[in-house]
Amino acid sequence: MVSSGSPEHTGFKAPAPLDAAPRTRSRVMMACKDIADGFRLWRLAATLGWLDIRLQFSGSTLGPFWLTLTTAIMIGSMGLIYSQLFHLVLKDYLPYLSISIILWQTGLSALILESCSTFTRATETLRSVNMPYTVQALRTMMRCGIVFSYNLVVPVVVFLIFGISPGPDVVLALPALLLWLVDSVALCLLLGCACARFRDIPPIVGSVMQIIFYITPIIWEPKQVAAHAWLLYFNPFYSLLEIVRRPFLGQIPSATSWLIAGATSVVFCLLALFVFSRSRSKLAFWV
Amino acid sequence: MSGSVFDAGRVAPGTSSISIRDLSLDFPIFHGGARSLKKLLFKRGKAALTSSRSLRTGGEVRMDRPDGGPIYVQALDDVSVEIRTGERVGLIGHNGAGKSTLLRVMAGIYMPDAPNVDIRGQVAALLDVNSGMNPELTGRENITLMGRHKGLNTAQIRQLEQDVEEFAQLDTFLDLPVRLYSSGMIVRLGFGLATAITPQILLMDEWFMAGDFHFRERAEKRLSSVVNNTDILVITSHALDVLEEWCTRLIWMEGGQIRMDGPTAEVMAAYRTDMQVPDDKA
User: Fold this and answer.
1) Are B112 and A33 in contact (CB under 8 A)?
2) Where is the ABC transporter domain (chain B) (predicted)?
3) CATH classification of B84-276, choosing from 3.40.50.150, 3.40.630.10, 3.40.50.300, 2.60.120.1440?
4) A85 CA: distance to closest CA in chain B (Å)
């Protein structure tokens, strides 16, 4: 998310009421303490995340399974249409499509879009309770995680229908999903702060995610651009997706994918720490 | 609080203190284009092409960027306060004098990293009626959240729930969403919650004076038991009789500055003269 990561250098200096005063306590240290305190309150974050989901679906009988149903219908219809368009065998294509769509739409994409409202959703709390800001990031992560796991039912059912099993390699998805969790906290802190200050960032992020959806192999397969497949590595979201997707398809993700995904995550974390440590003391005024 | 994993900032009994030195606080007010990244970048670009000028000037309300940059309102102007264990401090002054802002600074909500603000001791703040309660959730769920925030385990949360239930006397309303409560009921719940766990520093904004007479009597009883166990109490209120009863020291705020700071009787006398409030005790 370079487009929303760069403005911090310029825009975040403006409301600095205490810039002239000597900084005896390091901003980065205070931010790290906030993150550590936030993790110690993980039970609170988990409860908040659960309650968010429950409130969102209160009054509907199916509850969060509405999401599952919607996703199932979408994947079914997309599978039928695109397998015709691309001249693919449904048995090969539908499992690929189902896992890709889930990982993108309710995984990476949902996380990035939700992370924008990490702090703006919690205005009341931030203004009246002294609570580590990281709790809100963990809450967003929890919420996305719950929605994600509800939707994971869809590819599982597709795999069962077609009698496909990913085999033992599927365990390789676990470290990759762990990396996603780290990224999600970083993105919540990064985009959460940026979007609290600049309210036009969420729509920009939305447009960017739309573009990334088309340039990343999600509904199409990398092998369809065989000769130019190496170009895909310039898109870090491709690697982030591959390290989780390949194990589900019974394949081992390439070392290059892991390397790029790891490097991207490090960049996310450093950017997040930079932006969060600079905006932390002003967040209460921004939300 | 024994067994809690998160005794945030708890210090040895009797060593709590609040120390604020020369604190000034400007509120950024975002309006119009100040919230827009596109506009900001565009303006920066334009400014770089023309010549740059100095941005900050003095004054109460700063409009240094009339084209839509944030306006700053000075809420606190060079405020210094030292409060030690055992003090019961009341904040008085007009609306907008900076009382609530000062209270939020003490609670660590505004400027948590400022080097000239040093708060020692575990703080509980009753800043607004909702106090971070989620209006969509039931009272019981809000109690659970509060307990989780304090790092209590499930058994301790059950205990907290019982305690608050007994005090608030909301009966069946406790299982309904807080948004359905009357303002008095919200106060009962919020007050019961905030005073269920005795903090070392208790900060209260004036809202806790709401509620019917019967409730106020019980609230004061409960509050006195809490206050006797806290190291520091800071309250703001317009109810002068309440301040006279509770406080040993008054701080009179005006226009973001401290106008007077001293023993209750002294400050109250000066304040009454200034406000021309007839002294009902005379």
Assistant:
1) no
2) 55-280
3) 3.40.50.300
4) 39
